[in-house]
């Protein structure tokens, strides 16, 4: 198994786990005219990486990694899964994380079976765990010999890629502008990856109030293209 | 610099809830809110002789709501956080036992410039217990032009149900490095509010709220969700603390009424022969009317028909349609 090629494959936006069906509240922002053009899309993308992803999904990935490196017992993973569920308040965000995790685990099982991944999947299916995508991603990436730094960088990149692709579809902004945002935020991603390890435990799961509200409002949005 | 302790112990005796073994140290005081003979449940108000929370203050609040006890805890006024260097800490521990009900929606927290405050709430609930919990954070003394001048507010709320962590709300506001008025944060608003309802009846209330809260207001923006199993979270942003507090209190009261109504069905001993008469249908008409009435009152207060036009329902027709449905 080639670590780099595996990372490129599982991190591809076309990797069929359904990530393109989620906007994580962006659809509400766009429909309410808050994210409306390239400059506001860039602010949204930057804020998402810096103030949401860094403290949430990227932190969960890192925490899973630490548990794996420390060869921690199943109980620790169970607790982490519970912690993530308790932090993800908006229902659609919690369900998105679960759906992506299940599809990711099912698909990667066919590519290269990993015991921890299969155990996680069966616990989710039995209802003992909720299931969260960053945990699933970390479990598989770790087993594939990918480094934490690469896994994190790729994870940030793919999250940002999802954001700009959704912006291009929803607002819409030009494909060129979307790619420009993706390129311009390289330094931000690097900085966040470097800082990830130093993140204090008390800051894990920080919530952005506006983001939470827009994600909740999405549940009631009359016409919508995305699941979340 | 003050170390203060408040301890409240609510126990049920027959149909009533009584205050037992309470304790408070200066500058705080806990007394009955109005006459204690007016309700079967217990109503307490927490008062303070201090103008607010000062640097290095440490406040510890413990609330025990015992089996079948019902407690509403009120605050007297806005909680003012004065300018600080080291910061103040507040710790609240709540324990609600079997069939206990606890409601606490304090006045907004108003941080002055350089205020530094950490508040940690740890709440343990029995699976049959109900929690109605609110919190509102202002950006500062907005009308004096003091908005987001504070150093830090860190609010952590952990809710356990049958010892399992079900909800963790971790909010850190540090305007020095966060774009607090930008997308994801307060946008152009100055206040944020959260209401949490954890109860065996939360799912049923959620489907009621899905029918009731169909509009958006002009001066506040809000969303609500099933934040965990048997739990609802409602979050809002607005520009006025009093308005948000009134609205949150109304919504909290709705949660309270709903819980009381539902728990009566559980706690009343039903004669098996009359069981079919005694048990109400899943959602009765009167229940729907009761909830929509409460919202109607709320809407009237915030000025749909009155002289004060603070908030208007954008979808007034839709609200009327819901009410008409309830009257059928």
From TrEMBL, chain A:
Q: Which GO terms describe its molecular function?
A: nickel cation binding
Q: In terms of domain of life, where is this protein from?
A: Bacteria
Task: Spell out where the chain crosses the membrane.
Answer: none
Where is it localised?
Cytoplasm
Instruction: Name the InterPro entries on file.
Output: UreF, UreF_sf
**Mind listing the UniProt keywords for this protein, alphabetically?**
Chaperone, Cytoplasm, Nickel insertion
**What GO CC terms are in its UniProt record?**
cytoplasm
Sequence similarity: Belongs to the UreF family.
Q: Cite the record's note on assembly.
A: UreD, UreF and UreG form a complex that acts as a GTP-hydrolysis-dependent molecular chaperone, activating the urease apoprotein by helping to assemble the nickel containing metallocenter of UreC. The UreE protein probably delivers the nickel.
**What is its biological role?**
Required for maturation of urease via the functional incorporation of the urease nickel metallocenter.
User: HAMAP family under this entry?
Assistant: UreF
What name does UniProt use for this protein?
Urease accessory protein UreF
Q: What is the lineage of its organism?
A: Bacteria, Pseudomonadati, Bacteroidota, Cytophagia, Cytophagales
TrEMBL record, chain B:
Q: Which InterPro entries match?
A: UreD (IPR002669)
- Superkingdom classification of source: Bacteria
List localization entries: Cytoplasm
Q: Which Pfam families does its entry note? A: UreD (PF01774)
Determine if Cytoplasm is one of this entry's keywords. yes
Q: Which UniProt keywords apply?
A: Chaperone, Cytoplasm, Nickel insertion
Q: Does the keyword Hydrolase apply?
A: no
Indicate what this protein is called per its UniProt record. Answer: Urease accessory protein UreD
- Give the family per the record: Belongs to the UreD family.
> Which cellular component terms (GO) are annotated to the entry?
cytoplasm
PANTHER family reported in the protein's UniProt record: UREASE ACCESSORY PROTEIN D (PTHR33643)
Subunit: UreD, UreF and UreG form a complex that acts as a GTP-hydrolysis-dependent molecular chaperone, activating the urease apoprotein by helping to assemble the nickel containing metallocenter of UreC. The UreE protein probably delivers the nickel.
A GO term, aspect molecular function: nickel cation binding
Tell me, in a sentence or two, what this protein's role is.
Answer: Required for maturation of urease via the functional incorporation of the urease nickel metallocenter.
